Amino acid sequence: MTQQGSTPPTEQDGPFAEMLGIRPGESADGVGTAYMTVEDRHRQGAGAVQGGILVALADYAFFRACRSLFKEGEHAVTIELKLNFIAPAREGELTARSTIKSRGGRIIVGDMEITGPDDRLIATGLGTYITVYDRRGNPRADGA
User: Fold this and answer.
1) How much is the pLDDT for 11?
2) Most buried residue, 46, 57, 70, 140, by most Cβ within 10 Å?
């Protein structure tokens, strides 16, 4: 099932999200979404999705929200993220949604929310990204 406004699976933003089964969704106007269908591999011993996987899902939605505001050549990395777990996620489709609340010079602040298949709130949080420019492959000015 493809979500409305989603990026085709061939445009996955990175191998880590793909490895976890996280799918990209919307990335426009300071809003980002990501989706994940709960599988056995996501559950910890008590049968709920492991917390770190939920953090990765929320962070990915936040990245997609940030990405929609990037300037040419700009990237961003997480410098802070806080996620409150409200209810266990045990099955079905999870939706993470992030909205940018503030964009300063290099700092971007956004909120994140994960809901379950019945729109039940699973987690909510706040994060901060800092913008950077990709310097891989660019020769240094001093020739080194």
Assistant:
1) 55
2) 57
